[in-house]
Amino acid sequence: MTDTPLISASNLSVHFPIAGGLFGPKKFVRAVDDVSIDIAPGTFFGLVGESGSGKTTLGRALLKAVPITGGHVKYSDNGVNYNLGELSAADLKEYRKRAQLIFQDPYAALSPRMTVRDIIAEPLEVMKLTSSREETDNRVREIAAKCRLNLEHLRRFPHAFSGGQRQRISIARALVSNPRFLVADECVAALDVSIQADILNLLNSLQTELGLTFLFISHDLSVVAHTCDHVAVMYLGQIVEIAPTKKLFSKTLHPYTKALLSAIPDLDPDAEKTATKLEGEIPSPINPPSGCKFHTRCPFAQDRCTAEVPEWREFDDEHFVACHFADELNL
Amino acid sequence: MTLLKVENLTLGFDTDEGRIIAIDDISFELESGEVMGLVGESGSGKSVTAKSLMKLNPDNAVYDPSTRITLTLDDGDVDVMSLRTAREMQVVRGGAVSMIFQEPMASFAPAISIGDQMTEQLLLHSSMSKREATELSIEMLNHVGISDAPSRFNQYAFELSGGMRQRAMIAMALSTKPKLLIADEPTTALDVTIQAQVIDLMKDLVAEYGMGIIFITHDLGVIAQTADRVAVMYLGKIVETGTVRQIIRSPKHPYTKGLLNALPDLNDLGAPLTPVAGDIPSPLERPPGCVFNTRCPEVIEGRCDAALPEVTDLGAGHHVSCFAVPQPVETSV
Asked: For residues A257 and A248, what is the distance between their CA atoms, to the nearest angstrom?
């Protein structure tokens, strides 16, 4: 691991304008609000949070798939540097080869009218990465084998495959352009548990073999815990806690992280639920609460939380949190 | 009291590619006040089983003549298979049997207010007046923890959040006071935090109303927190049944063991994940013999792919269908 992060976002914001009144002030959905993260090369960086917390938008911003409203995202890999805020059209095409996305639902992500070979070959053709059909075929076969697809599979159409096989096809498509950085957006959420483990193991071995860097987005903390090196917890467009995975689980600092953890149903039917249960639901990102955005649902909220935005601080080596009472709570 | 008795349920679908066997000769019973979890991966036939209890499967569904589904109600037994007309079937469609679906957004009509949908079924299934139905519906919405129920009553499904919609769905399903509630993946589309709230709510309601529940899910953690008894399904077969503790703590069928091992363990982050090997066979290519033999780590060549394993009674309500599980006489612990 080198010291330079592969992806470095500083004060990144993505705000979507929404229709306000004719003369009223323009309103924004603050999907991602002042987020700073560094993703080290060759690691799995996990991003968790409820739906509506801005995980997907953050992932897409790092791929430059949504307009960046504020802040910077820098990509640097062995002397190749991009500043995503000001990419030229040519640079954007280059960046697309290096950064790819694996989608959540393998049933919706694959065209039913294309053979598996054509699906995997499409990025090569669009990006003009190969010069002959033979070269394309070779590359498709090579990547298909890496993703444990049979050569015979390549001639078939997606409908003939199960969820796990389809997800392997979408992974092959994402990897065919030889990217360095991958955003896996809930890539196992639509799969059965028996298959989920298989896909996670595949991603892991591909990561080691090809030296890839992943942003792994999931709402499932137990999956993230097993896959990722670092985890960031997101709530209403902001990161509330970042830590190396083991630290996050052994010493949880933010009440929201704690609530997410204790909401995971325990496999032991007799488990005592000492849970910090969350009341209510995530507020609207159009009108986020004042102060600490989590104060409306936080069981430990005090007056200060309503009034004052908690400072983002390094609590412990590599363990960052935004909570006024991180020192006192002892969750 | 036995509320529901399903015997030899066998069901196929006629398609262009031939008849697909979705459910292959399954039998189970459910008591009043009992929560039975139905677990298995997609394609195992969980939802089809649930829908056959309400005869909601599409027209190309073909039930085997030996299939018997009996619902025991206060005023006598109902033979579900003999119900033909829509009027006859009202008793299992919202009357004595209610269903909560997985995707509440897809199951509410988008252009009819929540309130109208709630009262519609009450007017259909009871002799209530419109006013009584409205009062009861608002009371039910309150009961499931929806704040400001009178104004929510007039809203549409898109105006409610996911968790709120699922609560409204539960309120709607319970307002006719069903004897049997079928919950088909009721928490799968929800966030873990909301899922925890909905599970708590359902537990409270079972305790209060005492109805029988069939709880379908692929999440064994959710099962552990809700069910009394569990049936594990694979490719249209029930491979193992038992109490929730028997299934979670001492699973016997290799498939049940595989499902449990595939779950990430939060107490042991370093442990490698062990998937169930291979992929689920297409229902058009059902393996001969034991349906799990193509993926089974304990497969006995020449036996598992040749004959169907009998149901072995392990005692205390624990049943398994597997050749690799020794007969209980040999394993007197």
From this structure: 9
